[in-house]
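[Discussion] Sanity-checking designs against the backbone

I'm trying to build intuition for which residues belong where. Below is a structure token string of 157 positions. I'd appreciate it if someone posts a full sequence so I can compare it with mine line by line.
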């Protein structure tokens, strides 16, 4: 088991980022909080050793996204988070139309766009995190950008 200091440091360093990713995937703050909490419980229980902070961050993102996928599989009756709540956690108010358009995209595009543009992961890193090929990630980024642009132009301009 990890020491309390190691766990606390991980929560302080990666908690907000994991919450944003989970919120984007789940569209529900309560579920996002649960997913982040379960991610850190897994981290504490497994006590993995990492080569670097980047490896630790990637591992935590992978676990969190897998928790979100599990929750999405079983969730049937929860309402999504209001747009107002998204502003509090995601981006500045001046970017308001982008976040709404992003939230309307299918999950497979939303997560790669979030990881690439918000968390600044490279394509090959995203492919490892979501367990997809590099070409699939590139295609999702390309299609996701096009969908995002279409939605944004149609509804917010």
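Best answer:
Here's mine. Compare freely.
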């Amino acid at each position: 088991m990890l020491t309390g200091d190691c766990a606390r440091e991980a929560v302080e360093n990666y908690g907000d980022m994991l919450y944003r990713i989970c919120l984007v995937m789940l569209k529900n703050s309560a579920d996002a909080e649960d997913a982040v909490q379960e991610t850190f419980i897994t981290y504490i229980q497994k006590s993995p050793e990492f080569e670097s902070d980047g490896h630790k961050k990637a591992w935590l993102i992978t676990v969190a996204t897998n928790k979100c996928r599990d929750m999405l599989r079983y969730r049937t009756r929860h309402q999504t988070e209001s747009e107002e709540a998204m502003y509090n956690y995601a981006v500045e108010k001046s970017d308001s139309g982008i976040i709404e358009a992003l939230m309307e995209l299918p999950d497979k595009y939303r997560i790669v766009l979030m990881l690439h543009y918000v968390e600044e992961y490279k394509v090959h890193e995203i492919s490892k995190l979501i367990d997809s090929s590099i070409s699939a990630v590139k295609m999702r980024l390309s299609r996701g950008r096009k969908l995002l642009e279409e939605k944004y132009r149609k509804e917010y301009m």
